Amino acid sequence: MSSPSDAARRRRATVALKASLRELRNQLSLLNHQVSAHVALKDVDLDCLELIGRHGPLSPSALARRAGLHPATMTGILDRLQKGGWIVRERDPEAADRRAVAVRAVPGRTAELFRLYQGMNAKLDELCADYSEEELALIAGFLRRATAAGDTATGDLANS
Description:
Elements: H1 4-38, H2 43-55, H3 60-67, H4 71-83, E1 87-91, E2 101-105, H5 111-128, H6 133-158
Antiparallel strand pairs: 1-2
């Protein structure tokens, strides 16, 4: 049985963990803001480009759903990304509607982004070297579950 002091320590540890996650989110937001400024994109454009690269090709409406954005907002984002040479819009050969469009990232164009994130990737490699494979698996599992919790909370807010 746990004592009140055990419960208090656990609460403090949980609060500290949540604070660390907020600090990480803020730092990653600052990093993404710097990266997007270097390539003349808005932060939201960079977010959508990441989604296209990870899940694409996507229809504009599917991208809007994944990004949590209104379809009209997505049109402007896609126009900027296409104008900058980051994406192409192509007819979706798998769609029943011949007007359907799929958006995909331009191959090789993201090398510039990888270069800009190189410093963070190197720091993460150094950080990961201090952990065992089992510890890394535990951390990765926690982050996947935290991401799923965030997805659920986002959906709940969007539907309320």
